[in-house]
Structure formats: structure tokens, C-alpha cells
């Protein structure tokens, strides 16, 4: 809804629609959730989108609208498909570990992808200048991990207890949020080749452990 409102405002803007005016450049922050569950497969941007949550479906709809508006108006809009964001502050896994929340048992676990917030900010700036209009980019680091392994790694680095493992059937009764449960239903490995080749990205934190070690806490 917010994306539609913004598009409506931009379309009505006399400044942006006037002849001879500077071309609008922008980046739409979408989600890798537009691919849905891919059973752990490697997923490039050409993979069929199959959003399986209302949240991801809204993002996919917004992608189409921004791409259409870009073609119609000549706007240079890049589409970034972003997975789990983490950093040393608000998005650190530390708080979740301290609460002792469980992760899936190994046989039920899913592959997740991540990007450090500082790397994401730099990629957004690069995309403003270098993204091909209407083109989508997977934005992630080089360390696709099973979700449980991600939290185990964080626990080891922080000196905390590793989270308990539960079967998928028990996860809903384990105090997990509906959003976390939705993440536990989807598994994929994002291919970031296009991001590196076309946007010229050099990751400061190519692996999760490097980003987690930047946490001063």
C-alpha cells in the first residue's frame, strides 16, 4: 500500500513528469521471499517467483509496479531482493540467543541467506548509479547457512549457549513469532553473481562470522 501511494505521488508530480527534467533514480528494497520455498536450491534472479506469504506477495506486486512505472516514465529503478539483515546493534542475533528460543532440528532445518546492514547500505548507493533500470539483484553475502548453524555460530562467537533444537511440528508451540515461523518454511541459496558483476560490489563482510565479530558487545 505504501509503495502504491508513493508511486501515485510521483506520477502526479509536475517536477518529475515535466519535459527536460532530470531522470528519477531510485532503488526498491524488495525481499528474497518473492521466490518462496526453493527446497534449498541455488536461486538466481531468473528463477520463477512464487511468493508464499502475504508480505512477500505485496513486495512482488510492488516490484511489478515500480518496473512498469520505470518503463512508462523513463525512471531508473533498480530492484534489490534482500534476505535477512543483521548488524552489531538492533539486528544482532544476540538477543534471540539470550532468550533461549529454539531452532529447527537438523533434519527439518532450512537454508537462509544474510547481508550485513553496512554492506546493504553501500550496495543501495552503488545500485542508484549502476543498476540496470527494472533489473532485479539478489543482495546477500557469500555464506548461505542452515538457520540453526547460523545461530550456533553466533552463540560460539558470543560465548552463549547454543539454542535448543525442535522438530518442525513443535516449532509453533515453542514461542516463536509468526514471522520466524514463516522463515522456517522456506529454504533457498541465493546466487549473488549478478550483484557483484553488474554493481561492482566488494563485500566488507563476505561471511557471517566476519560481520558477527564486528559486534562490539
Which structural class best describes the helix and strand composition?
A: alpha/beta
Described by the principal axes of the CA atoms, the overall outline is: globular
Order of neighbouring strands in the sheet with most strands: 1-3-8
Please give the largest β-sheet: 3 strands, parallel
End-to-end CA span: 37 Å
Let me know the number of strands.
11
Strand content: 15-25%
User: At the fourth CATH level, what is the homologous superfamily?
Assistant: NAD(P)-binding Rossmann-like Domain
CATH arch. level architecture = 3-Layer(aba) Sandwich
Please bin the fraction of helical residues: 40-55%
Radius of gyration (CA) equals: 19 Å
CATH topology: Rossmann fold
Tell me, rounded to a whole number, the average pLDDT.
91
Order of helices and strands: HHEEHEEHEEEHEEHEHHEHH
Low-confidence stretches: none
Task: Compute the number of helices.
Answer: 10
Q: What is the number of independent domains?
A: 1
CATH class: Alpha Beta
Organism: mine drainage metagenome
Keywords: NAD
Protein name: NAD dependent epimerase/dehydratase family protein
Domain NAD-dependent epimerase/dehydratase: 17-140
Which keywords apply here?
217 residues; alpha/beta; Rossmann fold; three-stranded parallel beta sheet; two-stranded parallel ribbon; 10 helices; Epimerase_deHydtase; NAD(P)-bd_dom_sf; NAD dependent epimerase/dehydratase family protein; NAD
Structural write-up:
It is a single chain. By secondary structure, this protein is α/β, with parallel strands linked by helices. It has a single domain, classed as Rossmann fold (3-Layer(aba) Sandwich). It contains 10 helices and 11 strands. A 3-stranded parallel β-sheet has the order 1-3-8, sandwiched between helices. Helix 1 (2-12) packs parallel to helix 3 (54-73). The mean pLDDT is 91.
